[in-house]
């Protein structure tokens, strides 16, 4: 095994993964720099979710290597990978994945509660993020009483509350209206940049990808393009957030 470059928080080499013979990834190599917002784009079925699952340790690729902070993830057992995901990564899916029995703040505090952080400290951290996402007043509500856009803000708050090294966001705004989509993404990227959190964002939406620092394009399980975005986009992503992050 060759050690990855020092400034890559995530580094993957020659990832191959297929589902019953049908290819998901066909030799993808990728480095994600510490603190960057990286968009992975491409049409539906090109392998974005499979790539994020491999990079985050949810899926072990059939071939290839994944490293996090120079530690091999592909050789870890399930328990170590689970611990890595719980302690160092955040995940935002297209559909908010919330626990229906828990209130808004309990859902947002879950990463800290699972790590054994005190109830009080977890609630304080979660509440701060909920307020920054403009849903502080909903802290005691249960998910089923809220709008989809409010539930997705809880998912974003939960990802940030855990102070992760990396947030993986898989089409996080796919179910939202245009205005809400842009605002939520800007809030996420601004918060990540100000807290030094790396973001790997899968999207088929060019407008969403434009908020990233760099865009990697995929086609049929392969990486086909790599574009660093100009400073203007970066500036927009940093400054246009209306929330106090
Ligand atoms: N669990 C699975 N079982 C079988 N085939 C799968 C599975 N997951 C993904 N695939 C297939 O692997 C390929 C890549 O899928 P993947 O979900 O990674 O792409 P994607 O770019 O994220 O697509 P989408 O935007 O629709 O989520 C597709 O052809 C898909 O049908």
From TrEMBL:
Q: Cross-referenced InterPro entries, in alphabetical order?
A: AAA+_ATPase (IPR003593), ABC_transporter-like_ATP-bd (IPR003439), ABC_transpr_LolD-like (IPR015854), P-loop_NTPase (IPR027417)
Note whether DNA repair occurs among the keywords.
no
Which keywords label this protein? ATP-binding, Nucleotide-binding
Does the entry feature the keyword Protein biosynthesis, yes or no?
A: no
- Coiled-coil stretches are none
Top-rank taxon of the source lineage equals Bacteria
**Molecular function as annotated in GO:** ATP binding
Q: Name one Pfam family in it.
A: ABC_tran
Q: What sequence ranges are listed for the domain ABC transporter?
A: 10-245
Q: Which family does it belong to?
A: Belongs to the ABC transporter superfamily.
What PANTHER family does the database record attribute to this sequence? IMPORT ATP-BINDING PROTEIN, LIPOPROTEIN-RELEASING SYSTEM ATP-BINDING PROTEIN LOLD
User: Per its record, how is this protein called by name?
Assistant: ABC transporter ATP-binding protein
Species in which this protein is naturally found: Streptomyces mutomycini
